């Protein structure tokens, strides 16, 4: 991945955070907002905020800032929140069940229609109102229901084989929570969520903050 594409990816990942923040401001009665205000509240620079928002909106005006209604609508349109994305989830364990029960996915245009598993104790039941089917029905149902998005929450040992089955069943995009680096055919979109990597970043930032606190405390004695 090039530096430019990495930067664009980071900007894209910030857009939902901007959207959530802007909706809070809107609920508080604000009708417009400046990049300086956004930057201050979100601990970014105003230049970065303007660059990020320019990906999705041309609503910003010098001195007057962004009209909130327009900016929110532009962000929702750019992120595809008005385009419903049906998905199947494979792996109805603890993480899978948590995702099945997450009601806010609907706000983002994501609808998990069903889950799939191999555990006979889970198959045939419902989780958060979603049916859990045996894995052997995946390809047929994905094809019949034209589902193109798959969410993978299975153990590492079976992640690749399940991924292969998903792509063979017509899945075009996979949201991968398994923690495994998956091999996918050309043209398949893969989004990895690595909790270990996220925690490593968090831990590193916390360690730096604590070292800074210790240094500042030492200088004050």
Automatic annotation (TrEMBL):
GO terms for molecular function: DNA binding; DNA-binding transcription factor activity. Residues 17-56 bind DNA. One of its GO terms (biological process) is negative regulation of DNA-templated transcription. Its main location: cytoplasm. Transmembrane segments: none annotated. The keyword Cytoplasm applies. Pfam families: CoA_binding (PF02629), Put_DNA-bind_N (PF06971). Keywords: Cytoplasm, DNA-binding, NAD, Repressor, Transcription, Transcription regulation. Residues 81-181 form the CoA-binding domain. NAD(+) binds at residues 91-96. It is found in: Cytoplasm. One of its GO terms (cellular component) is cytoplasm. Belongs to the transcriptional regulatory Rex family. HAMAP family: Rex. Modulates transcription in response to changes in cellular NADH/NAD(+) redox state. Homodimer. This is Redox-sensing transcriptional repressor Rex. It comes from Candidatus Avichristensenella intestinipullorum.
């Amino acid at each position: 991945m090039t530096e430019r594409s990495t930067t664009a990816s980071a900007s894209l990942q910030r857009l939902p955070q901007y959207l959530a923040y802007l909706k809070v401001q809107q609920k508080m009665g604000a009708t417009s907002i400046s990049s300086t205000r956004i930057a201050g509240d979100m601990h970014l620079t105003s230049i970065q905020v303007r660059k990020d928002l320019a990906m999705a909106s041309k609503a910003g005006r010098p001195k007057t800032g962004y009209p909130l209604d327009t900016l929110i609508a532009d962000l929702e349109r750019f992120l595809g929140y008005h385009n419903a994305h049906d998905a199947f989830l494979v792996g109805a364990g603890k993480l899978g069940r948590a995702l099945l029960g997450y009601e806010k996915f609907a706000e983002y245009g994501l609808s998990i229609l069903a889950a799939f598993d191999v555990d006979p104790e889970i198959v045939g039941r419902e989780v958060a109102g979603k049916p859990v089917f045996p894995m052997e029905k995946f390809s047929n149902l994905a094809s019949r229901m034209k589902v193109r998005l798959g969410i993978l929450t299975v153990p590492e040992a079976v992640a690749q084989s399940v991924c292969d089955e998903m792509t063979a069943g017509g899945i075009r995009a996979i949201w991968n929570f398994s923690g495994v680096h998956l091999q996918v055919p050309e043209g398949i979109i893969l989004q990895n969520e690595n909790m270990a990597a996220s925690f490593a970043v968090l831990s590193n930032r916390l360690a730096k903050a604590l070292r800074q606190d210790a240094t500042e405390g030492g200088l004050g004695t």
